[in-house]
Amino acid sequence: MNRRGLLRLAVSLVSAAAVSPRLTHASAAALIVRHIPSSGEELPIIGLGTSGPFEVGDSRAARAPLAEVLEGFFAAGARLIDTSPMYSSAERVLGELLTDPMRQRAFLATKVWTRGERAGIEQMTHSAQLLRRAHLDLIQVHNLLDLDTQLKTLYSWKEAGRVRYVGVTHYTVSAQADLVRALERNRLDFVQLNYSPVTRAAEQRLLPLAAERGVAVLVNRPFEDGELFAAVRGKPLPAVAAEVDAASWGQLALKFIASHPSVTCIIPATGKLTHLEDNLAGGRGRLPDARQREAIARAFA
Fold first, then answer.
1. Average pLDDT value for the chain
2. For the ranges 22-36, 105-119, 178-192, 226-240, which has the lowest average pLDDT?
3. 228, 242, 250, 276: which sits with the fewest CB atoms below 10 Å from its CB?
4. Cα separation of 78 and 45, whole Å?
5. 50 vs 86: CA distance, rounded Å
6. How confident is the model at residue 221 (pLDDT cuts 50, 70, 90)?
7. How many Å separate Cα 89 from the centre of its chain?
8. In whole angstroms, what is the distance from residue 120 CA to residue 116 CA?
9. In this model, does residue 25 exceed pLDDT 90?
10. pTM of the predicted protein model
11. Does 23 score more than 90 pLDDT?
12. Would you place residue 287 in the very low, low, confident or very high pLDDT band (cuts 50, 70, 90)?
């Protein structure tokens, strides 16, 4: 079954009064949670990215599906939303669509993506204004740009209570050696990296190092920007899918990623409620063991 053909699952009711009175159905199972190593705080394994789908204008037609996605996301008990000033209008759109109850429950992660101390401070301050939060949960140095300068500011902000966690990001395999060096040399709470059943380079050094250093891991590009689905289009799900409660190729990919013990949260971007529901289902039920992981990787190859 492909993602478009997936029957819409019932949206779970988790503190529905704090989100929307229209959400009335309970989910079959709660999302798997992981702990942030530096604090012990729990995060549901499935988060939400905003690159692409949330880069829209002021049109009501363009924003309505995003509001549905946010409503379903929080109703299911999910929390972490990842954005960036690099994603054109995404921070502003997200900030305007979040209701106050959603904003209180959200774990908001954004990034700093500029050079220079003053420019970094101005950009992060502006991000907080756009997201309508005086204190952000996580700020990451986007693609390691001007790393030392921005980390200096972030450490100061963390000490002052302006941000709770500090991290770094990249989205390519070629930059993973740089992420390794950043983890080895700095005190970090989070690292964001690319990882999927067909891109497994992070397993060699980066994921083990994150566990060793007590750093939470956010996974971007879990579907290889859609290329993962193109590779399996028309193929039936392998037998291993039923063994791990996966009803779609998307769920199978997410369960592969979630089964790595170093992974804290996966952040697929979507602007469609049906895709969100499919993604959330990938964060429930059984996860693959070592044998099943290899079977999943072969199925996507």
1. 92
2. 22-36
3. 242
4. 8
5. 11
6. very high
7. 18
8. 6
9. no
10. 0.91
11. no
12. very high
Average pLDDT of 262-284? 98
Distances (CA, A) of 246 to 27, 39, 285: 16, 31, 8
Q: How far is CA 136 from the centre of its chain?
A: 16
For residue 164, CA distances in Å to 104, 168, 231 come to 14, 14, 39
Contact 273, 65 (CB under 8 A): yes
Q: Which candidate, 129, 140, 132, 200, places its Cα nearest to that of 164?
A: 140
Crossing angle between the packed helical segments 117-131 and 147-160, to the nearest 10 degrees: 50
Residue (of 71, 24, 22, 14) closest to 48 by Cα position: 71
Which 8-state DSSP code applies to residue 137? Answer: E
The stretches of 39-97 forming alpha helices (DSSP H) are 60-75, 90-97
Length reported for the chain:
301
Contact yes or no for 12/25 (Cβ under 8 A): yes
Contact 210, 217 (CB under 8 A): yes
Closest CA to 250 of 219, 275, 287: 275
Q: pLDDT tens across 179-215, in order?
A: 999 999 999 999 999 999 999 999 999 999 999 999 9
Contact between 31 and 76 under an 8 Å Cβ cutoff? The reply is yes
Which SS3 state, helix, strand or coil, does residue 188 take? coil
